[in-house]
Amino acid sequence: MKRILFLLLLLAPFAGISQNNRLWKSYYSYTNIVDLSQSANKVFAAGENAVFFKNLSTAEIKTITSVDGLKTETVTAIHHSTAFNKTLVGNDNGLLLVINSDNSVASRIDIVQEATVQSNRKRINHIYEHEGKAYISCDFGIAVFNIATLEFGDTFYLGPNGAEVPVRQATVHNGYIYAACGDNAGIRRGLVASPNLNDYNQWEMYNFGSWFFITTHNNTLIGGDSNTIFKFSGPNIFSVVHSFSFATPLLDLRSVNGSLMATVINNVRVYNEQLQLQASINIIPGETSPTNFSCATILNDQLFIGTQNKGVFATFINNLSIISNITPNGPLRSNIFSLEKSANALWAVFGGYSSFYEPNEAEYGISKLTAEGWTSIPYEDIEEKNEGNQVASLSDIVVNPNNENEVYIGSFHNGLVKITGDQVEEVFTPLNTNSNGNEGLQSLFTSQFPNYRSVRVNGMTYDRQGNLWMLNTRIPKPLKVLRTNGSWVSYSFEGIIANTFEGEYGKMVIDKNGTKWIPSLNDGLIAFNEGQNDKFIVMKNDSNLPSTYVRCVAIDNRNQLWIGTQKGLRVLRGVDRFLTENELTTNAIIILEDGLAQELMFEQFITDIKVDGANNKWIGTATAGAFLVSPDGQQTLFHFTKLNSPLPSNNINDIEIDPVTGEVFFATDRGMVSYQGTSTKAEENLNNVYVFPNPVRPGFEGDVNISGLIDKANIKITDIEGNLVFETTSEGGTVLWNTTAFGRYKVASGVYMIFIASEDGSETKVKKVMIVR
């Protein structure tokens, strides 16, 4: 008999940073609700990558995310056990997470493949509790989980000769456990009391066909196929309760607290114990755009409706006109493709393209985080400004450095979106940018599909004169500039790269000399400066690049160019070399690891590089998480992964840094979190120096932050008698002191003086900090 092994992994604290989880924040989306559950006074909602609950007694809404230890893959099911006061969270890869009553994550249970079960067949579809056991419906069969001991028991394979068949939902009725099976495996049942249900011969066919739902309602067996609800009175004996149209398949069917709820994308129907229709809702009052329902549950006469795009709504069975949204504040989606930090906001878009620049044509809005929380611009507002035409694959963001209220969003399929004061003002396309001699945006052209149109805008940035530069890919003149006077100018890459009709480009940067450094998919790194007689330099393998696929570039505080490629990292020692040389050579960073010379980031697919206030580099990768390396790259200060930190994924889409606070934002394909970094942008003077925490109280294990510094300030710390205990020079706006005397021992309780002076001694500042042991 085939068996599956279940491995229980008790969640140890995150190695190296568990005591510093207070330094992390989460920014998940809760708009796409995949499942709901309830207790006596709480409703639980599962998003794709995090969960939340609302306490109806206190009105408290609490989120549980990776920062709390909930390290999900993609959530597919949730069930709250009232008897054990635990919440089970199932994932698409067979991962089961258990949340305690205090919201801590008790354990992670991974279904480990022994021989035949493939990873794509471990999806958890539904969790049903009966007499202390959770019957977990998976794509291979049913797994039985003991909620009290957090251990798995039997595994049921229900197909012919014990074959794997997908079980969508299970229930217990009159001593039998029923399983709704897909792939035409029917509804099957076996006696709960049978000691050998893991023998497929113990299961009998109850009804033929493909089934998605099975539930027990008022001691009646209720089933559902793709679009119809059935009432069963015996094997192959049933009657129809309700049929939906073929265009609106049944998404959810459950019985809770005497009510049967059926959900399709545009309708939720609630039946009483006698299967009489009690309520039906198909629109949400006040919502101006379509609401796509996903599931529903009921608690204390309140109906909670999960949606695919707007979170959870709460209403009353007897008064559907009273309705509210109880979703926690967050971005529109967890999978954030690109970020942009301005002085007072963080912008996020969710469209994007594949690693080979294939637009996903996704139609999503735009989100913005400020001190007041998240707000969003709906996709419908963008489309309306384009005369109802599609504006998909929003992939890049740039904020006007001279006017924070002016923001441009690049669509990698339909042009350029201009936002003014959080309102969509205009969508730029070839139709409105190529008049009066302007050379504006263009669509790619393919002879194979001559009617296909795709206007791909990417890599936007401003120059010092306030002109907006961007790449318009797969055309002969891909480098565009929108000048401050509203005119457009184009620059040709013909003769510079092999095939302009296949040219794809990443996010460029502009250095202090006005040189544009442009990453490309197949043509290495392209450097261009129109002020140098339209000079081009193309850097490929002969420039010591490890790959001609350059994904990202960054200029550090010493005017060195850091280059991230599909196969590693390179550094150009000085951007000024472009002005005097015609060929440029990059260098690998060689470090010593276990006494052996190694290349930093060897063979890593680097997705982003950001430079912090101390000239450290945050490096994002496609598979290995995020690194923080020292200014010269010789030290790896941090390496955050999904295993050792709250990062929800090792695939980093983008990184942004708040230069004032030092907060570092990591956008991944499974959600966004931030780490409270310590490197901030240098100030222009010492007027705003501050020290925290102050006082340092007993039990504090962190560092004292001295912030608001100018660059290269000298900092000396002495005890009250003038004995020097610490000295350093600032790089950026923050210095850390670990409250030791030059690292040898913890200093004693007392008042310590902090003397700060600029490099030339023209500015000084004195601060105090109290240490209490």
From TrEMBL:
Entry keyword Repeat: no
Alphabetical UniProt keywords: Signal
The keyword Signal appears for this protein: yes
Pfam families, sorted: PorZ_N_b_propeller, Reg_prop
Top-level taxon of the source organism: Bacteria
Signal peptide per UniProt: 1-17
Domain PorZ N-terminal beta-propeller: 43-204
Protein name: PorZ N-terminal beta-propeller domain-containing protein
Taxonomic source organism: Flavobacterium cyanobacteriorum
